[in-house]
Amino acid sequence: MAKTPREPLKPETRLVTAGRDTEAQHGFVNPPVFHASTVLYPTAADQVAHRARYQYGRRGTPTSEALENALGALEGDNCAGVALLPSGLAAIATALMTVAGAGDHVLVTDSVYRPTRSFCDGVFRRMGVETSYYDPLIGADIAALFKPNTRAVFVEAPGSQSFEMQDVPAIAQVAHAKGAVVLMDNTWATPLYFRALDKGVDLSIQAGTKYIGGHSDLMFGCVAANAALLPKLRDTVHALGLCVGPDDMYLALRGLRTLAVRLKRHFESGLTVARWLARRPEVARVLHPALESDPGHAIWKRDFTGACGLFSVVLKPVSQRAVFAFMDALTLFGLGYSWGGFESLVISFDCTDYRTATRWAPGGPTLRFHIGLEDPDDLIADLDKAFAAMRAAA
Ligand SMILES: *Cc1c(COP(=O)(O)O)cnc(C)c1O
């Protein structure tokens, strides 16, 4: 007989136990990977009635179920189910299409992940959905932006690249009072550090490509839904024919088992490096809500239980040549976009061109860092050498 753990379990324990059925796995620790399209029905009557535990590869396999169960266990009691998508952006687009259609209006934070904005300004507009962008710091004042046809508010905290914190519970309270739902991109904190569905979010989205995968070798996304929205979410996923390849689902499940220990290390090392950067003479500001000096710190402390390894830095004014000299001198930081893997990264970014509800004027060049699992002492030594290269080029 397989043993069943005694509930209730803490999130870190659930990450280890969820989505595993030792008996069905012939005693092996991990579930098998089903490469599957066709399902054979036992009899003609069963086939005509679609009577089988699984009906079609795209609509679910034991592999997708194991991953959905493991992800759901992490989201808490308000999660009715999780949909799996082939990327984080596919998860965002699917969640948005679940809640709005022709003639509807949605409110999206001005600090949103840029491809989310592209979806709203492109496909969503062509579908007849109107998007208004709002100041991420708006809080309960978002009430003034609602129209009779506002169906949803999209939040992302902290903001993509710019790291503004949002008062998600306050926004959710207003949205629900107005009969709208709340969608959140929760990739930064993950449900381990921000329990979105417990804070009033109706659909919580993660780019599993980032920390769930954790090894820079996987594209994956997921949407966790409350009971009210799950049927419509599933219906949208099925109608669009979206599904994830079995080996990628397996990688996501494998990544989940170590998510808590990896995130803890990203959190600690990220703060160590952020504090060191904040003391550098070349740095004007570090944008990291877990730092006491950050304007979003009070909200972070109230609502979040941790931070990942991603934050930004505003440099004091310096030439682009000097910034590039800094980036090119780094040997432990790759110059790459998709974060959440074990390795450290840096990119140069600029939000000035595309913001519409707020003005982005940081006062100096901006860099986004991802702090990986390396020893932070080595990362700091690498950054120190790069600052020397920057000064030499200035
Ligand atoms: C990377 C990212 C996405 C998109 O995920 P993909 O899997 O790359 O499509 C969405 N939101 C945030 C905040 C991200 O960082």
User: Which structural class fits the helix and strand makeup?
Assistant: alpha/beta
Number of strands: 12
Helix content: 25-40%
* Ligand list: pyridoxal-5'-phosphate
Low-confidence stretches: none
Overall tally of domains: 2
Please give the order of strands in the largest beta sheet.
Answer: 1-7-6-5-4-2-3
- What is the name of the CATH architecture of the largest domain? 3-Layer(aba) Sandwich
- Indicate the proportion of strand residues: 15-25%
The CATH fourth-level homologous superfamily of the largest domain: Type I PLP-dependent aspartate aminotransferase-like (Major domain)
Order of helices and strands: HHHEHEHEEHEHEEHHHEHEHEEEH
- What would you report as the Rg, rounded to the nearest angstrom? 22 Å
Give the helices and strands, then pairings.
Layout: H1 11-17, H2 44-48, H3 62-75, E1 81-85, H4 88-99, E2 105-109, H5 114-126, E3 130-134, E4 150-156, H6 168-177, E5 181-185, H7 190-193, E6 203-207, E7 221-225, H8 230-240, H9 246-257, H10 259-278, E8 283-287, H11 297-303, E9 310-315, H12 320-329, E10 333-334, E11 344-349, E12 366-370, H13 376-393
Parallel strand pairs: 2-3, 2-4, 4-5, 5-6, 10-11
Antiparallel strand pairs: 1-7, 6-7, 8-9, 9-12, 11-12
Helix pairs in contact: 1-3, 3-9, 4-5, 4-8, 12-13
What is this entry, summarized?
The protein is α/β, with parallel strands linked by helices. Helix content is 36%, strand content 15%. The chain is globular, with a radius of gyration of 22 Å.
Give a description of the structure.
- This protein is an alpha/beta fold and 394 residues long.
- It folds into two domains: 11-257, 3-Layer(aba) Sandwich (Aspartate Aminotransferase, domain 2); 260-393, Aspartate Aminotransferase, domain 1 (Alpha-Beta Complex), CATH 3.90.1150.
- The protein is 36% helix and 15% strand.
- The protein contains 13 helices and twelve strands.
- It has helices at residues 11-17, 44-48, 62-75, 88-99, 114-126, 168-177, 190-193, 230-240, 246-257, 259-278, 297-303, 320-329, 376-393; strands at 81-85, 105-109, 130-134, 150-156, 181-185, 203-207, 221-225, 283-287, 310-315, 333-334, 344-349, 366-370.
- The strands form two sheets. Strands 1-7-6-5-4-2-3 form a seven-stranded mixed sheet, with helices on both faces. A five-stranded mixed sheet has the order 8-9-12-11-10, covered by helices on one side.
- The protein is globular and about 80 Å long.
- It starts with 10 loop residues before the first helix and ends with a helix.
- The mean pLDDT is 96.
- Pyridoxal-5'-phosphate (PLP) binds next to helix 4.
